Fold:
Amino acid sequence: MKKLIALISIICLISNVFAQDEATRKKHYSLSDNVALSGYDPLTYFAKKPFPGKKSIAYTHLGITYYFINEKSRSIFKANPSKYEPAYGGWCAYALAKKKPEKMEADPETYKIVNGKLYVFYNSFGINTVKKWNKNEEKSKATADKNWGIIISK
Structure:
């Protein structure tokens, strides 16, 4: 009986740790109706044609829900979610590279794959921030990485 109680206590502790992790992730992700990437299938970016997924083919990874175009896409994502999740929680990468970084909504169709990682950018009212990012991508990425680390540690 003591072993059972100890096991249940461990399971409860682990559940609390994951729940906090999920809550923290949700806090730092750009979500629309609790869905990342405005419902676009994350794998379609890597095929160079972002496409909205289907609500009926969803998967939630550590509190973040994604939609997929088909079961195969969802299965590939489930095997390695960190490979396909957007950098910086899906917020505009360029906005995080500024001196005063901010979480800014991104256009799900304005993106770039850099070293196998998905970055999305703001693109509206004639302002396409991926163009600004491209002017000095190395510096922008380094600054955004640093700023993102500060933001998620709060």
Observations:
- The first strand starts at residue 31 and ends at 32.
- The chain has two domains: 1-85, 86-154.
- Confidence is low (pLDDT under 50) at residues 1-20.
